[in-house]
Amino acid sequence: MIKQSPVERVENLTKKDFMTQYKQAEKPVVIENLTKDWPARKKWSIDYIKEVAGHNMVSLYDSKPSTDYRHQYDPAAKMQLKNYFAMLEQGENDLRLFFYNILAEAPELVKDFSYPEIGLRFFKKLPVLFAGGKGTKVQMHFDIDYADIFLCHFGGKKRVLLFSPEQTRYMYHVPFSFSSLFDVDFDCPDYEKYPALQYLQGEAAQLNHGDILYIPPGYWHYIVYEDISFSMALRAFPAKPKNIFKMLKNLIFIRSIEGLMRKIAGQPWNDRNERLAVSRTNQRVQ
Ligand SMILES: O=C(O)CCC(=O)C(=O)O
């Protein structure tokens, strides 16, 4: 197993403590009771979301890596949310609900929570939901926008493995993407093939209903849904010039180059980037 220690858990945090001990220190934390007074804490379940938004059409994404001209973020299926949840209940665990904007698509849900007064300036137009079934995995990645994220969790358990941005050199980062190499298994690492994984030091969080996980900007995260569950991400866009620059570079340059090259070159472009992820990372530890 990759070396890892538990993410700190606290029941509550003052704004001052959050800002000094976690935000400024760029350190993840699970806050258990920040959702205590939210109606969502009592109300939100798969059945409730079905009742409020079950008839909405949603795009769903699978875990297959990008191949040929297909981008990983192209939806694998579209269906009504209630049918998707019914599939999860029957054991589906590959299709994921990803970045579903509840303000735009299911505004009734927005009444059920409030933005924590914790020192972050949350971007209130983008409360987004993620969902998956028992066994669903989210590939190791970092968020393109370098936001501070509050991942507010509901339903069954979910496990998150995090790595600080300083460890990017050992992450088998695929050039022009925001992910690690698809073949790297962070639960069962192959140290012979991927020796740099031995140098990683992760932080693991187990999320229960009502917990909020703070993910600092640029942190890598890999997620395993241990039960059917869903999370709402609240995000605060970067304020530091360094992170604003990285966000703009990702959004404007990296994504466009990747999109264009995939259209022009297809699979050889993917193969080149995957080869580079392995050779560059392995070289760093030789
Ligand atoms: O919980 C999930 O399914 C994905 C969440 C995530 O990766 C994110 O907020 O960046």
What is the CATH superfamily? Cupin
Structural class: alpha+beta
* Spatial order of the strands forming the largest sheet: 2-3-12-9-14-7-6-4-5
Low-confidence stretches: none
Give structural attributes.
alpha+beta; 5-stranded mixed beta sheet; binds 2-oxoglutaric acid; 286 residues; 9-stranded mixed beta sheet; Jelly Rolls
Describe the structure.
The protein has 286 residues and is an alpha+beta fold. The protein has one domain: Jelly Rolls (Sandwich). 27% of the residues lie in helices and 25% in strands. The protein is built from seven helices and 14 strands. The chain has a nine-stranded mixed beta sheet. Helix 1 links the parallel strand 2 and strand 3. The longest helix is centred in the last third of the chain and has 25 residues. The radius of gyration is 19 Å and the shape is globular. The two termini are 21 Å apart. The relative contact order is 0.19. The structure holds 2-oxoglutaric acid. The site of 2-oxoglutaric acid has 11 residues, from strand 7, strand 9, strand 13 and strand 14. 2-oxoglutaric acid binds next to strand 7, strand 9, strand 13 and strand 14.
